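Hi V.,

Quick status before I head out on leave. The structure for the redesign project is tokenized and pasted below; the design run finished overnight.
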């Protein structure tokens, strides 16, 4: 919740405290990686996600998707695509990761795949009775820096989202 309130300092402090209290619990590292992704520190987020996934090799799709998004933020689109594809295969309803995947495909110029991912996001959001465009557009994404929001927007535009 702290991240979505854009209280990044408090979110980072809470994640670091969780790691300090229980270093063998992967959720603290996942939380810290999430803060790092939204504050534009993708490479640091990758490092934290690798720790979390090493602690729990039977991790959920959320870990794979967060690692994929960290690679996207770092501009490592091929690695991001592989991980985001795996996460969305494991949970086809994970529309946020499908949106990240669409932006990734946009940068990779895989336009057919990008448009399919956007269509799936919109379909899921309609089924959930949510605005099908709200999360694809950038109003609710808690990026700290406008440059990161713009990076994501450009990927979606390249993907064919108008």
């Amino acid at each position: 919740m702290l991240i979505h309130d854009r209280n990044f300092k408090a979110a980072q402090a809470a994640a670091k405290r969780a790691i300090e209290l229980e270093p063998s619990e992967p959720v603290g590292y996942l939380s810290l990686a999430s803060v790092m992704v939204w504050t534009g520190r993708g490479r640091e987020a990758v490092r934290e996600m690798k720790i979390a996934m090493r602690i729990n090799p039977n991790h959920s799709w959320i870990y794979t998707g967060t690692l994929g998004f960290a690679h996207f933020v770092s501009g490592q689109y091929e690695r991001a695509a592989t991980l985001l594809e795996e996460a969305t295969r494991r949970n086809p309803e994970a529309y946020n990761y499908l949106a990240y995947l669409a932006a990734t495909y946009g940068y990779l110029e895989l336009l057919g795949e990008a448009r399919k991912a956007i269509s799936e996001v919109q379909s899921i959001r309609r089924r959930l009775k949510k605005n099908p465009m709200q999360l694809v557009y950038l109003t609710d994404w808690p990026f700290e820096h406008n440059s990161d929001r713009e990076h994501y927007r450009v990927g979606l535009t390249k993907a064919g989202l108008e």
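Above is the designed sequence. The mean pLDDT is 91.

G. will cover questions while I'm gone.

Best,
W.
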